[in-house]
Specification:
By secondary structure, the chain is an all-alpha fold. The chain has 12 helices and no strands. Helix 6 runs parallel beside helix 8, helix 7 packs parallel to helix 9 and helix 8 packs parallel to helix 12.
Amino acid sequence: MQRSYLMAKLHKFSDDVLLHELRSDELPPDSVELLLAELGTHQRRMNRAPEMQHALCAQVLERNLYLAPQGRTGEAVSGTALAGRAADLFTWAVAPLARDGRYLRDLQELMHSMSRASHPIGSNWLEQSILSPANGKVPDLPPPVWRQLLHEALTREDQRATPSPASPLPSMPSMHPMHPMPSTTTTTTSPISTTTTTSLIAPESSTPASRLSELSNNVGCVVGVSLAVIVVLIAIVLMVM
């Protein structure tokens, strides 16, 4: 109820007033979220002057607002939710001005940070911001940023393909009985059935369907496929340029 009331109050103020509040260093995360939510409404985006669009883009990039925590104070937020919020903010505040040379360095720092972000934040953000934005418009990134994304994707693939050295197994201490007991009983050995032994050690036959199911359930494989799609897309864009 209080959130709806605050949103209604913010709706009455101009972009200049909201931007002035956004520049404050004393705002808690929930207040920053409310301001960005109001500034990102469809009506404001459609009627915004170019000068204000540039001011908001610079503020978002300089203050790293796309990485600010979402949610009210003390509320835990999942990586998927953080990635979705950051992607939405990038789409309306940064992407329309991505070709402007004034923001090239900030863009490169943003791509560097997101390419190395933990899963699922990094991969989800790249998917929702670069590959499949919610508005259907792929951002017009400058060639240096496309090359950087390609380099980041190839580097991660190389690191994933490099096997990590196996750690040596700890040696097990030998166990010796303190007082060996003499054997007083006689045991007889019976032949082991080869049929039973074979069924215990023989691996189950795997079918193509089962192997595909195992691969689809492996997070590493899914992320690897996503990175491969990014590499192909960036290569196509660079060839067209």
